[in-house]
């Protein structure tokens, strides 16, 4: 492609709203443009990158045994009622009515549609197992679309769904997908980890892993062990039972004084309390009120711990969970926010294991400006449900090997694999007759990769202060061919000739034939980040070119015109 | 692909709602399934075919100089207000609100989005011309989705848009697209014609052609000349001015009797009148009341002619036009339907040239059960606007060469090319600074191809009573390899070996390794219609196979195993 013809609207300014690195570079490099919040157009360079990613994904997913389909975005709302997700999905599910008043959802995912398809088409174990996939546009009305392509309202996804007659087949397909995902992200040049994950609204009874790219800008926190292979999303990572670890002996055996209410004017936060009272955060019991599916519950964790809402939600088997607002807290506790406590609180109390292991603690008094000390779990309040409700902390012991300690790092979710089991086949009646003639529900799995997010994530990992650095397999073009001056006949002729020669050798070349200053051309070249840059300058009179790899910090190398093609082939690994 | 693994749910029964041939075969052959009215899932064979079509389209459109993008389906409603099409598109435009109450349209086409993109990115003639295209899902809430993939509410389209600094460049791009369309439809094996077309709601001031596949099931009527190259959509085809052709001398010079009202009880239709009165249909003047953008107009055509609503709409520059209902007709004419006439009718009268050329005629009397004879156009009623408001008839003279006569044939619209001019660039403010420093509106063109419709149209032209007959370039697989019995070791081994050998030679093979009766296998093979069928039967003991081309009526041919690959290569034109 010649750059005078190419639509590559590079910018010199970073767009004001772009915080994520990938968002900045993709907009500056002319790869994408925003149409509306969380809705982007892919411009030609972006489209080419996405096509390369699509090709890699399609290759590997087909190798894993899946067949490609294309399912509609317009999905009858009845299907979502049938699966029970019409309500669960909440405002993220975009709804609309057709001209006859019939309600549709714009597919944020396709479990409903594909299960209903398979329910109609497959009746016998003989036709199982079956895995279908598609690369298709998804719609999710995110509350806060952000970071460019990292969290969009309209985006490309590869979603695959497997149907099998037994769990053994599901395990086999799951493993094949798991392996395919590794190959895909490797081919995309990513530094990633598969981690244990929480099933969320989509989940079923089986396992689930997320594939996480390690990146500062990630929304997720990944917990890993420094000794064993353990890796999990913070949402999921189990904390080791603190009653053993903390060295506290169980509280009930100790002689502890009676509860004592005391004045703590304006001491609302853990920090205010520890600073003012000269105590440790771990001496405090934090009481937080949530509304779970409309009903209030209190969650108690130690003052130095943070609540893991996913764990709370799962323990309650709740669909929605949110922090209670100030008004609700006041009506339940009778006190301002910051002074809630478990004593005499007439709502269910979910108590974290680390709290049950405390001999005593300081809690809010359910009275503004008052706390209580010497509160003994089980003696002074009833534990409705003890459990693991907190986020693990860096440095804690690994829940897997118990030997190592945990570290955390931020990550971007690239994909996930789920063992759904019979969750959807039961709701949508997808049954088959097994080899003994008995009707059974199909065992399902689902497997997603965010295609547009993948493009952004590659940039998060591959860039420098001058712009993007595309891996060869993904780059929109492999070689950026830049004559210093198109006015110079020797240079322009040599460039044109090399352009043809490289293309004939199957190399994708962008020829910067623009009548721009060299500074502008080099700035754009660094910005759009093609793997190999060839400059045709004055040295062409001696038969020499300059070659530089975008990722390299070394200065450009002089290479003879006669050797350049072979040299490039080596660099491209051809 | 081995058929035991492939998801190809063939059916023995024609689906009850499928009228169009392509709809029947695509459903029976397991290529598509309906999710909702006008909304289909592409199953694996359908998806492969669409990918082949996409590849052909992408190839040729890129050769024509266009660059691929991907634009959002979710489009802010404001853009549609800006272009003025928010109202025009009517119920076909699917509208929805996001969680913040902001209104969006689901893109039925992308003139608004792309013009707004280019408006922001291109300011100078130096960056023009530019042509961008995408292959993307479109949404149109059709009043009557029908014929399977021929008229859908969600479908794949290739849409391209060109921006240029002058009309000369537009003409050049238009011609390149026109040529690319010819190559695309040729490569798809279609019998088609480019015809002059009407611009419709999308149109601009320039020309427009439709590419029509000749097919009985087509919704469109194509008019062609038996002498010259003239071909037009019936909507567009101009009628030769009948005042010259019909031999009538202009009416006003003739001595004609005065108007005479007469009793015509229950004679409402042209047929009832001609039968009862013993006259010719061409002696009658038909008066039909329309509501154009809310206002009534009457259109007058000769009794043997039919009204062309597109011509009427264009003459009025109306957005919406529809037949007046019975109540409206009564309130305007004072009579029941069937007795409307132009005399003393106080609404605009659009009079077809063939009527202006009549010396006199019989019209309704605007009184139930009465007509008037000796009505002279211009004498007895005022002509608001004379024009060509009728459909041409088969056998009429060609409006182009005047020598040949016209024929009609039905067609399916495969694609269209439009010279939009400045219609959208004016509405959306897409300007550039020309080489003299003057700000001008960009000159636009747009170019569409219905990708999913193309698949259906190929079937409309390529099928027989047993099923589909795929052209080689489009077929999901090129060879259907069928062992008579997989239980027979010699047959199954030979089949497996040939399967590998052909795949290694780059041939796409479907191996029917199912444990089914030969009758079932052959029926399915005819149904899904792969170009070449190879049967491995008993003759394999003598080293012989049976080869049959799907399109051929000849019996299968015996060919030696050693020669089969070369033979297939020849048939595939490799």
- Low-confidence sequence ranges of chain A: 243-251
Assembly category: homodimer
Largest interface: A-B, 55 and 55 residues
How much helicity do the residues of chain A have? 25-40%
CATH topology of the largest domain in chain A: BirA Bifunctional Protein, domain 2
Radius of gyration of chain A: 29 Å
GO molecular function (chains A, B): aminoacyl-tRNA deacylase activity; ATP binding; catalytic activity, acting on a protein; proline-tRNA ligase activity; transferase activity
GO cellular component, one term (chains A, B): cytosol
EC number (chains A, B): 6.1.1.15
Enzyme class (chains A, B): ligase
What does it look like?
- 2 copies of one chain form a homodimer.
- Chain A has 574 residues and is α+β, with helices and mostly antiparallel strands.
- Chain A has 3 domains: 21-212 and 413-459, BirA Bifunctional Protein, domain 2; 242-387, YbaK protein, CATH 3.90.960; 477-571, 3-Layer(aba) Sandwich (Rossmann fold), CATH 3.40.50.800.
- Chain A is 27% helix and 28% strand.
- In chain A, the strands form 8 sheets. In chain A, strands 3, 7, 8, 9, 10, 11, 12, 21 and 24 form a 9-stranded mixed beta sheet that branches. Chain A has a 5-stranded mixed beta sheet with strand order 16-14-15-17-20.
- The longest helix of chain A has 21 residues, at 167-187.
- Chain A is globular, with a radius of gyration of 29 Å.
- The two termini of chain A are 21 Å apart.
